[in-house]
Design a protein that fits this description.
InterPro entries: Thiolase-like. It contains 10 helices and 12 strands. It has 351 residues and is α/β, with parallel strands linked by helices. A hairpin with a 4-residue loop joins strand 11 and strand 12.
């Protein structure tokens, strides 16, 4: 089966690892990063959060997301090495919805962050275009078809797909608290704030071979849809029509070849409506799955991952495929945004 694109490099920074390999192995070992954060809720009580203690604690919000994104991007570029020079590169940056809103100062944080990252890439690959979307966790699924199409027709040589997220921001914590979504001992149907960033480098197989870059994984399917159930309404999550449709569309081509997925990576936290949705969609798509049907939710130990979730899933899968600890050779990444967007992405071991 011809892949849409191949993974050739990955970079990640999370509360359990400062690089892609660290995060993948720590995730495999079930490492957890929950700790008391130097931020408080509406009652003045310290919150439980997963965050990077190595970052300056007074840096919050968009500037902190920029630092996270820069670390993950630099790792991916470092792994590309000299191959990046002279390449036409498309950077696709996915961020959370609130970063697309105009700040009191008049600028849009998402665009400023994209400009900063574009400058970092140009230091290694001068021919760079940057696109930023603020659609939350499902954003990478909506961007990926465009990137794969550009790779297929030779408009670009490489695509850097990434996402950055941080809840380490007093305004963000206040918003989660006001919406009843902030985790605390008396509110378990909620999310634990988190932060992280990840980038993966994608190429056509022939370009990767020409650049002498090893394939770490193959993207073979992607689909998107919309759900009616959101955090701000009472629509029944068990309908799961959007997620079911996305899984069927992404996994259908594999099923036609007699192949099924045995590994699922989700962006689920502890909000029950998303669990109900996944349960319903899984029941309706069982013919696409096989043993061990292992379901993993990194955000339950790293904190909410937002727009970084799907790129991080790809980074974890690439490390697991390469180093032999993947539970199955076909993995599905599933993510959902607060606006109802849903995305499913299928990645297989190389070869």
């Amino acid at each position: 089966m011809r892949p849409l694109a191949v993974l050739v490099a990955a970079g990640a920074v999370t509360p359990i690892g400062l690089r892609s390999i660290d995060s993948a192995f720590s995730h495999r070992a079930a490492a957890a990063a929950m700790r008391e954060a130097p931020l408080v809720d509406a009652e003045g009580e310290p919150i439980t959060m997963c965050f990077l203690p190595t970052l300056e604690p007074r840096v919050t919000g968009a500037p902190r997301a920029a630092q996270l994104a820069a670390r993950a991007l630099d790792e991916a570029l470092e792994k590309l090495g000299a191959a990046a020079q002279g390449m036409r590169v498309q950077v696709a940056l996915c961020l959370d919805e609130h970063l697309g809103q105009r700040s009191p100062g008049g600028d849009v944080p998402a665009q400023r962050l994209a400009d900063e990252l574009g400058a970092r890439v140009r230091a290694r690959a001068p021919d760079v275009a940057v696109k930023v979307v603020t659609r939350g966790a499902a954003g990478p699924g909506f961007l990926l078809p465009e990137l794969c199409e550009a790779l297929a027709r030779g408009a670009v040589d490489a695509a850097l797909l990434g996402g950055a997220h941080t809840d380490y921001d007093p305004a963000r914590i206040a918003a989660l608290d006001a919406a009843g979504r902030l985790f605390r001992p008396d509110n378990l149907d909620a999310l634990i704030p988190g932060e992280g960033a990840a980038f993966v480098a994608l190429m056509r197989p022939d370009v990767a071979r020409r650049c002498l870059l090893a394939e770490l994984g193959e993207i073979v399917g992607v689909a998107t849809a919309h759900e009616r159930a959101r955090p701000d309404n009472d629509e029944p999550a068990f309908q799961a029509a959007g997620l079911t449709a996305a899984l069927r569309a992404a996994l259908g081509p594999l099923s036609e070849r007699g192949l099924r997925a045995g590994w699922v990576l989700t962006d689920l936290t502890f909000e029950s409506f998303r669990h109900f949705e996944l349960q319903a969609a899984s029941a309706r798509t069982q013919r696409f799955f096989c043993e061990p049907q292992q379901v993993e939710s990194p955000a339950q130990r790293m904190g909410h991952l937002g727009a970084a979730a799907m790129p991080l899933h790809l980074a974890i899968a690439s490390e697991a495929f390469t180093r032999g600890f993947a539970p199955h050779s076909i993995a599905v990444s599933v993510a959902g945004s607060d606006g109802g967007e849903r995305a499913a992405l299928v990645v297989t071991a190389p070869g």
